């Protein structure tokens, strides 16, 4: 079952974009352009439609999230019994319109 739309943050680079759920799941992504076929489309149905999830394996509190100042960079922070980890998602600009990168960084806090 798909998540409510308010659970998603948006990242993009003016050529394409992705929706990232609060649980660290990228549930919508079209590459290399917005009008391309979806690589991940769990937003429209179930996990069978494709997703890319990065999150702690154990229990965690409700993740907090924010956009970094003056940048379309989404930061999601998970707090678990073992520690705190931050997932940073963004799509950098490129001079090559055929190249679209999705960057997902995991940082221990």
From TrEMBL:
<feature type="domain" description="Trehalase-like N-terminal">
    <location>
        <begin position="2"/>
        <end position="108"/>
    </location>
</feature>
<dbReference type="Pfam" id="PF19291">
    <property type="entry name" value="TREH_N"/>
</dbReference>
<protein>
    <recommendedName>
        <fullName>Trehalase-like N-terminal domain-containing protein</fullName>
    </recommendedName>
</protein>
<dbReference type="InterPro" id="IPR045582">
    <property type="entry name" value="Trehalase-like_N"/>
</dbReference>
């Amino acid at each position: 079952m798909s998540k409510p739309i308010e659970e998603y943050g948006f990242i993009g680079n003016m050529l394409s974009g992705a929706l990232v759920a609060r649980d660290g799941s990228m549930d919508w992504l079209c590459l290399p352009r917005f009008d391309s076929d979806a690589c991940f489309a769990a937003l429209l149905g179930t996990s069978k439609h494709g997703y890319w999830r990065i999150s702690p394996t154990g229990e965690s509190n409700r993740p907090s999230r924010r956009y970094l100042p003056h940048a379309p960079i989404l930061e999601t922070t998970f707090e678990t019994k073992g520690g705190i980890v931050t997932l940073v998602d963004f799509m950098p600009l490129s001079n090559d319109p055929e190249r679209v990168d999705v960057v997902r960084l995991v940082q221990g806090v």
